[in-house]
Amino acid sequence: MRKSTIWVLVAVMAVTFVGLLYLQISYMDNLIEIRKEQFSLAVKRSLYDVSEALERDESIRYLQEGLEENQRRLILFEFGKNNFSSAGGFISEFSELSSDSLKLKLPKQQDLFKESNSERANIPYVAKRYMGMQELLKKQYMYQKGLLNDVVLKILNTASLQPILERIDTRQLESYLRAELLNNDLNLVFKYAIVDGHGKLLYRSQGYAPTADNTVYSQIIFPNDAPDRLNYIKIYFPTQSKYILQSVSFMATSFIFTLVMLFTFIFTITVALRQKKLTDMKTDFINNMTHEFKTPISTISLAAQMLKDQSVAKNPTMTEHIAKVITDESSRLRFQVDKVLQMSLLEKHRVMMRLSLVEANKVISNVINTFTLKVEKLGGQIDSHLCDENTLVEVDEMHFTNVIFNLLDNALKYAYEGRALKLHIETRVVNGKVEIEIEDNGIGIKKEDLKKIFDKFYRVSTGNVHNVKGFGLGLAYVQKIIEDLKGSIHAESELNIGTKFIIVLPLIKTD
Could you tell me the pTM of the whole model? Predict the structure, then answer.
């Protein structure tokens, strides 16, 4: 799959997921707003019903008081009117006035027809009786109307002048609140308070302390009071947000599935890009390997053809020279093959490390001697500062030598064209460890490439994949060997300035 196709798929899926997440988030926001509005309406409806219940209780209370007072007045009025001469007569009359004596005693309808047959036949008599009943009903109506008017006037003139806490029972108020909230399916913990029109706190329930995150709902307790004497009940729910979120918790499942799909897609694309990158690196590796093998094979083939020439065969000096060329190129070819095999074995952790105590300075000095001629041939120089202290390390001497050799070989490969190569090699002992520093003044490495240089097959692009020989395995091999030796390696570089590699290995102390 081409890289452009992968990026097109990434773009399409990214737009799809962004759109899906946007729709889900928008739907959830709208759902939460709807739940908040429903919650608010339910609370306001509950508070309104509580306010009506309090008004009804107050009206009933004043009506009962009015009935009792008017009953007493009626008793006294009847007593003064009849002026009973004996206590027995008063008691007899009083016993007829029950608690509901405000209802004037009217003859029952069936009693009107208990008269004798002669009285029934007397039509004027019956009419007189019905007229008397109508008169009594009119008097009862006027009496009750006057009683209600007195109660209403008393409520208007007296009730609103009393302190609010004398007009309502806070325990009854809390009971009404709880009952009305349950009727509206709001089974939540609530806190409430009573305040006057100026916001002064008159009463509060235990724990009433609203914060900026709490929504406080308000309702006038007695709406018919004078505007300057209005009182309010304020209520809030500490767990309101949690309650609303729980009501839309089913949306969490869809979010989880969407996120799982998103992470799966990201993982798939990451793997695809990594595989694509690995494929490209392996393609470059094959191209480089073909180029690396082609030169020694061509040289050996040419030398073999020259040996077939009788004139060459008769010249011992030429024969010796050709033999040396074949030997050198064969060694070069074998060295490249060994590199590939080494990395294959390192991947499978099958490399046998023959550890021994070695002086790091001695190994480095031998490698420097080998490279001095090569560096000087290019017009460069090697500057070495090897410490005088003990640099005894436990390593596989052959692999350790290859590590130093590879780092110096890289410095030669990536020398800055037109600039004399300078190599600086230094060793020092710091905190019980040996530090080996190899620095050059070559082309340097870009920051984005610096963290990838230890990856297998990775080669810093220099414009032409064949302009620098190699497979992209050298630094991967170096890092693997150093880590197996319980050490570490890192690189520091500036583009067009140079590169520095620092190896740290455990120091073996001797008595």
Answer: 0.46
